[in-house]
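To fix ideas, we reproduce below one chain and its tokenised fold.
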Amino acid sequence: MKPARFYKSAGQSRIRCCLCHHNCLVGPNQVGFCQVRKNIDGGFYSLNYGKVIAQQIDPIEKKPLSFFMPGTKTYSLACWGCNFRCRYCQNATIAQVRSRQALIDNTPETPPAAVVQAALANDCPSISYTYTEPTVFAEFALATMALAKQAKLKNIWVSNGYLAADLLIKLEPLLDAINVDLKFFNDNSYQKFCGARLQPVLDNIIKLKQSGVHLEITTLIIPNINDSPTELKQIAHFISDRLGSNTPWHISAFYPAHLMSDFKPTPAATIFAAREIGQSCGLTKVVPGNI
């Protein structure tokens, strides 16, 4: 447990978290929506600082990043928690951590320098903050990223794009590449399936593109939820019109998971139809995946 950043006092011993667009108002001895930031006696603390729950060497294409350092491997890591509650989360056991504080407490703390050393020892030219949402372990990620920069390593985020402005300002100078999930082009779907909103994600995607950070977009296509030609065209036009036609769009197949285990997998034909839609909207880098 370490003191958190990105918050302000809200009076009556309450704290306003400014880490992401939930902007949680956290009362005494309460946690925010993510379950890993807590108000303790008027101080705000990161409960998952350095609590690395997953470490692995991946091909960079698995992030997925197809047009940033292709053919290289990346040192991937995650800490507990997430600021979304996706009903189809593939990593729910480490991302959805309600009532799992004992597990977090018992996870050994990894210092940032150890992550950098592991990446170097395994000949990984980059570190990826992935598997769970790096926003919720931002203090640890930023500390690690600063050391990685000194060691000439690249920093990669795989994110839901819900981070707030204060974090984005601190992140951009340290970030080399990011893949952002654009899950739906419908605010009701974002609320129903993720507990979040669409517009902050769109705004952040545009800001990231303008910052010069290498950006790729991923959409997980879920049957009868976001697979209509209309919604896929909306996503493709947003990418083409606001980000540029050469911005990569990964279209990924859904498989039943977590609270949506009764849904059917995405047919391969749907993925290839989505690729045609993306190309018809002017996108030049549409990448089918997870089939």
About this structure: The mean pLDDT is 97. DSSP finds nine helices and 14 strands in the chain. Residues 229-243 form the longest helix (15 residues).
